[in-house]
Amino acid sequence: MSAFIVLGAQWGDEGKGKMTDYLAEGADVVVRFQGGNNAGHTVVVGDKEYKLHLIPSGILYKNKLNVIGNGVVVDPEALFKEIDYLQGLGENITPERLMISDRSQVIMPYHKELDNLYEIARGKNDIGTTKKGIGPCYTDKFERSGIRVCDLMKKDVLKEKLKTNLTIKNDIITKVLGGKALDFDTIYTQYLEYADRMRPFVKDISVKVYDSIKAGKNVLFEGAQGTLLDIDYGSYPFVTSSNTIAGGVCVGAGIGPTMITSVVGVAKAYTTRVGKGPFPTELEDETGEWIREKGFEFGVTTGRARRCGWLDLVILKSAARVSGITSFAVTKIDTLAGLKKIKICVGYKFEGSIIDYFPASLEDLAMCVPIYEEFDGWDLSIADARSYEELPENAKIYLKRIEEFTGVKVSIVSVGPKRDQTMVLTEI
Ligand code: GDP
Ligand code: IMO
Ligand code: MG
Question: Which coenzymes or cofactors are required (predicted)?
Fold first, then answer.
């Protein structure tokens, strides 16, 4: 039996989709525990590339159960678009393959509208959200006015809650934010249709996940976003609205911490981020541009160009601490091939001393100056390497430095988007 977590150690887009798909071969159940369709996870199987947002990345195996946990915010429109997309590619998405928690919060049209209008109202201080309604939906959850999947299943409950919520939201939308009121009947009719389609997939997932672990099955928890987008430990306020760190699994899937056996931190061999916010090792020069082009660093969900920079071990060390990461899966090391010199950040100079943790205050972070170590690069394309031995010596030195600094071993190295472009150094 094992219950292991695969989560992002940086600002998202580390290759969690690829690693989840790869590791899901040895799992029986794959569970998403937070986030929503703000995520964009790419999985490549053979010659086909799949873009997933809300559905767990284990879905491409026909015999695995994929679970959307209670910690996820579910946009039914996005859910069915994704199911239809997968059906169009020949995947039959049945309740045997996909389960949705009756406790998940539902993203409503007013959440998306508010996400958009708040961003406009913030002006130059906007967050750069994906505008999928994520923040407003989580706000309602904690404010206790959210509509859960179990509420959606009950016509009268939905009607009552939608009426109350829409009256308040329309006031905010029109009177505070200058937007256009949304129509009750349109939303109600639409969501009743969604409810009917969703019903066969809806279950108490905590029971299912718990029973699976107890029955000796392997359960993989797939993170969305990354450590620095965590609502508590990320670069607040330029974060998402959920707990992306390992602790999020317990609350977002309804299991206790003693059941978790290992935590795999997915780390890109360099750093990227989408949207606004601080980024100490950002490269706003031709090297950054070179990495973006070579690594094809463009967002899966919004298409925005990702900002690129050197690997920051302060971030990885912090991620290892807050999530109890037991090993790293290092991805996209192939992208760096061809650079003569490669830098790694091993600390920040801050107020006359050197720190190796990520400060809470953005003002403090802005004063941090990265301290770099410089490494010789490797020329050879390593996309064809299939074992650690086949990696160039300088790539091995690079990986060793990650292990030394963070005190966490590298268990997997990925040299391309495909399943077979993966080498396992130690079993998880
Ligand atoms: P996620 O959000 O963490 O699942 O990552 P994304 O799918 O948003 O972005 C990662 C991108 O890198 C995708 O296009 C993947 O297909 C691709 N990818 C994953 N691992 C590797 C790798 O080792 N090398 C290369 N070149 N691409 C990779
Ligand atoms: P995956 O799972 C990268 C970023 C947005 C924005 C901030 C808040 O593919 O790694 P939100 O819409 O969540 O309120 O936006 O978080 N963001 C991501 N960045 N990868 C993601 O997901 C992201 N999901 C949200 O760009 O800066
Ligand atoms: Mg992504």
Answer: Mg(2+)
